[in-house]
Queue: 2 jobs
Job 1
Amino acid sequence: MPMIKVLPIDEIPEDSRKIIDVGKYKVLVIHSKGQFFAVDNHCPHMNLPLKNGKITEDHAIVCPFHRSAFDLETGDVKEWSPWPPVMGKALGAIAREKALPIFETMEKDGWLWIADKPGE
Ligand code: FES
């Protein structure tokens, strides 16, 4: 998969995040526990931004809106719209469960590289 050189590693210190335009995607890059993750900034539930989502101990991102949770490495759904109680379940039925698109990352010569599109 073609990779794009996006930013110097020292511009994204530990525990920070940035939005980067990669083609038609807004990619959310996260530096957490020594690892870089790159995911679509749009939550697959209702397309709302994930940028301020909480990162859990087991490397998931939790959407700030209805708290769907996605594995940062695989994009797999860990929870689907559990919030708010009762309403969340109804809102979850609006869209079928869908994984979060994930972009491959690579560090080279002090720069972070990101795949030009999400993996399959
Ligand atoms: S928009 Fe993310 S869980 Fe609903």
Job 2
Amino acid sequence: MEGFIMSGLERLKLTGRVELLPSGFYSSVVLVVENGHKKVVKLIRKPELNEQAIAQQLGDDIVAYGAELLRRGVRSPQVKVRLLGDVGEGWDVVVEAPFQGTDVAHLLLEADESDSVRLTRGMLGMISALFDYPLESGFELQIGIDPKPDNFTVSETGEMHYIDLMPPRYRRDGVPIVEFPEPTTDIGKKVAYYRYYDMRGILTVLRSQLCRNRFDLRPLFRRLIAEFAAQYPGLGRHMGLSVGEVFVDANLSGRLAIIEALAGDDMYAMRDIVTQLAFENPLYRHPCIDKVFHLSHFYQEAPSPENVCRVKKILRAMTRNESVEV
Ligand SMILES: Nc1ncnc2c1ncn2[C@@H]1O[C@H](COP(=O)(O)OP(=O)(O)O)[C@@H](O)[C@H]1O
Ligand SMILES: [Mg+2]
């Protein structure tokens, strides 16, 4: 277990059995089991948390975001937030939540078709609470959500929860928080806003993440998302016209032309195409998918021209059923 997690936990004086959970960019997450009671403790340590006031603000934002989700009917954990000072240069933000079950990404790995339908509809149902709430404008939501399957859990009683409150994607004084720290480039901000606050981006991310987890069920996920999007004016049409969708029915030369035309900011087209090709030819499976997701990642800037070239090379070879080196 990472040293910083251990030192943080010691200072929290947690007792019980402690297991590390998979976690991403912002934090380290552990499950604590004591006397049959389970809770999740998330430790957030970042160079930006170098002043108490900044850490305090982040903690307040996390609590406020949870309240905004609940107000709109998105079940999310009641969290306790505290700060740990004097850790090296800065402050840790510690978020404690009740354990709310296994996440959907894990459940999907083993799921059959009917379970997958149920889980996907469950996530769409939670997302719809935000889509059906008054909008900010156009396709833009008042508060954001990161629609990755590993951010949704199913509890023992079968209830779904949205558990990821970091970064706290809500509008503080009218300004949407998109990442922590916020991207410093305009394009980075725009892409993050699209991913988390825009109905089109949210469904696009969800579709690509589902197809990443289970490319064998891609037609099912495409259908469920298309049906869901059709309930909202203009959204179904938008989702159907995306490059990744056009690719599905294109012939060989059409497909090669689509790949040739891909630009650095066509992250989701690249991702849709690789999962479609893996669905058609399971021999390619995960190495290609993981490689293309990795190479197309976008944070402050679009991927480098060199990465875009590598993506195209993989997609071309897969399209022609040639062997691929990843
Ligand atoms: N309250 C919770 N109940 C159950 N599992 C949780 C809970 N919070 C986090 N997890 C698990 O830990 C993982 C990482 O937590 P998350 O809050 O999504 O952090 P990250 O910022 O790293 O994405 C989740 O994908 C989920 O598997
Ligand atoms: Mg998460």
